[in-house]
Amino acid sequence: MRLVNFGEVLEIKNGRNQKRVENPSGRYPIYGSGGIMGYADEYLCDAETIVLGRKGSINNPIFVEQPFWNVDTAFGLCANKDYLYPKYLYYFCQQFDFERLNTTVTIPSLTKTNLLEVKLPLPPLAEQRRIAAILDKVDAIRRKRQLALALTDDFLKSVFLDMFGDPVTNPKGWDTVDLNALGEIITGSTPSRLNSDNYGNDIEWIKSDNINTPYHFLTLAKEGLSETSMESARVAPSGAVLVTCIAGSKDCIGNAAIANRKVSFNQQINAIVPKHTWLTNFLYGQIFAQKKIIQQASTESMKGMVSKGRMEKIKFIQPPKNEIEKFSALCDVVFKNCEKMWLAHSYAENTFKSLQQSFFE
User: Fold this and answer.
1) Across-strand partners of 13?
2) Terminus of the chain with fewer CB atoms < 10 Å: N or C?
3) Taking a C-beta distance cutoff of 8 angstroms, is the pair 202, 230 a contact?
C-alpha cells in the first residue's frame, strides 16, 4: 500500500484563542484538546476535521462533524477530500502514537513540522470509505456497551439512594455510627525497596490504580510482595472494601473497590474489613453512591488525605439488617451482570483495536 506524508493529503490549521465567556450562544463550537470549551460566531475549520492537541493531551483526536473554532493548544487536521476520506484519517489518528514524535521536552508536544512528516497508508478512496464503515460499526457496538455499563452504575447508585437516601445528609433519619463500629480500618504500607527480597509473587500488592477503575472489584495488581515482607505488609481479606485515601487530586479521594481475594496494599489506601460478611456490599454501596462521605473527612491540603483516625470517625448510616441484606442481594445480581457486560465490552474493544492495527500497519 502506498505511504504518503500528512503534508501531501491534508492541511494543518493552527488554532487561535477566542473570548468564550462573553459569547456562550455562538453558532460554532470552540474546541481544545479536551473537547468543547465554548462557542463562537466564526469558525476556523470546516466540518469533518480532526482536532488534535498540540501540547499535553496529544493522543486524543476528536472528529468534529460541523465547522468549529480551535484554540491555540489544538491543531485542526483538514483532509484534502480528493485524496483522503476524513473518517479514515480519524481512525488512523486514533491508533497512531503521536507522543513518539516528541523527543525534546518533558511535556508531550507536537509541531507542524513533526505532523507533516507522519506517514499514512493511502488506499483508494473507495477502500478508505469501506475501512471507515467497518470501524464505524465496531466502534458503535463498543460505545453502546460502554453506555450500558455506565447506566448499570447509575442504576446501582439510584437504588441505594432510593432505599437509604443520601448517606451524607441522611434525609431518612437512619441511625448513624462511627465507621469503625461497622468494620476495622487498616492503612496500607510499602515494604522497603532497599531489600529486594520484599517483592515477589506471593501476594498481590494493590495500588490506587487498581481501585480507580470502572470495575466494582479490584483489578489485578502488576506488582506483588514476597513472604519475606509479610510481617511489615498490610493485608486485607476477601470481602474488604479498599478506599483511596491519599491522592494527588481530592476528586480521587473516596474511590473504592471490593477485594474478592486476599491482597496487600500500599499506604495511599485504607481498607475497611467489615465485621459481618453481609455488610460488604452495603459499605461499598454507601461510598459508591456518595464518595463525599469519605472526602468530607479529608485534610484541607491541595492533594487531600484521609487518615485512619479520621476515617474511623466518619458517620455511616445503619439501617436495619434486613434492608441491608436486600441491597446486598441486588448488588450480587448487578455485579454478575456487570462481569458479563465487561467481557462483552472487552471483546468489542479488542476487536476494534485489532481491526485498526490490521488496516493501518
Assistant:
1) 76
2) C
3) yes
Q: Where are the domains of the chain?
A: 3-122, 158-320
Single out the residue of 281, 252, 254, 72 nearest to residue 160, CA to CA: 281
pLDDT at 272 over 90: yes
According to DSSP, the β-strands at 263-265 and 199-206 are: parallel
26 pLDDT higher than 50:
yes
Residue 329 pLDDT exceeds 60: yes
**Pick from 17, 21, 41: which is nearest to 31 by CA?**
17
Evaluate if residue 20 carries a pLDDT over 60: no
Strands 269-274 and 241-244, bridge-based pairing:
antiparallel
Residues 142-183: tens digit of each pLDDT: 999 989 888 988 999 999 999 999 999 999 999 999 999 999
Task: Select from 150, 148, 135 the least CA-distant residue to 349.
Answer: 135
Q: Which pLDDT band holds residue 302 (cuts at 50, 70, 90)? A: low
**What pLDDT, in 10s, does the model give residues 116-131?**
889 999 999 999 999 9
User: How far apart, in whole angstroms, are the C-alpha atoms of residue 240 and residue 129?
Assistant: 51
Q: Residue 186 pLDDT more than 90? A: yes
CA distances for 67 relative to 7, 291, 319, angstroms: 21, 39, 54
Containing 255, the helix (H) or strand (E) segment is none
Distance, in Å, from the CA atom of 211 to the CA atom of 129, rounded to the nearest integer, reads 40
Superfamily of the domain at 158-320:
DNA methylase specificity domains (3.90.220.20)
Give CATH for domain 3-122. 3.90.220.20
Rounded to 5°, angle at Cα 133 from 127 and 138:
130
Report the SS3 class of residue 13: strand
Question: Strand order of the sheet with strand 62-64?
Answer: 10-13, 74-79, 49-53, 62-64
Instruction: Indicate if 158-320 has the same CATH topology as 3-122.
Output: yes
Instruction: Look up residue 268 and give its three cell numbers.
Output: 495511599
What gap in Å lies between CA 33 and CA 46, rounded to an integer? Answer: 17
Q: How far apart are CA 326 and CA 322, in angstroms?
A: 6
| Model pTM score | 0.74
3-state secondary structure of 99: helix
